[in-house]
Amino acid sequence: MDFVTPEDLPAPAGYSHLVITDPGSRLVVISGQVGMSSDGTVAYGWEAQTRQTFTNLGIALAAAGATWADVVKLTYFVVATTELPMIRRVRNEFVDVERPPASSLVQVAGLFRPDILIEIEATAAVR
What we know:
Elements: E1 2-4, E2 18-20, E3 26-34, H1 46-63, E4 71-78, H2 84-91, E5 102-107, E6 118-126
Parallel strand pairs: 4-5
Antiparallel strand pairs: 1-2, 3-6, 4-6
């Protein structure tokens, strides 16, 4: 896979502008995950929810036979952008910061429950 940031685009903050997958890769699309454990308990606060969200994405990746190295795109939905530095710091514990996935972030008025602060979708290309 090629992780590309063209010089003619603005410098990204911890993501790649595009990822070109290898021919024959198997595409894995993961629904939005939130900071909720398997027993339905929602983690308290931004950092705990963000960490649980990434943990849940990792569980989903493993179920598909994928790893974080296979992730080519992350889409974030957040109720506020004030916590972006922390979100990036937690993200960097999971993704390859030398080859970060393409990313989009959308601020939303709310998610499916008022106590949910962040939701993240992932797409992986498994070689």
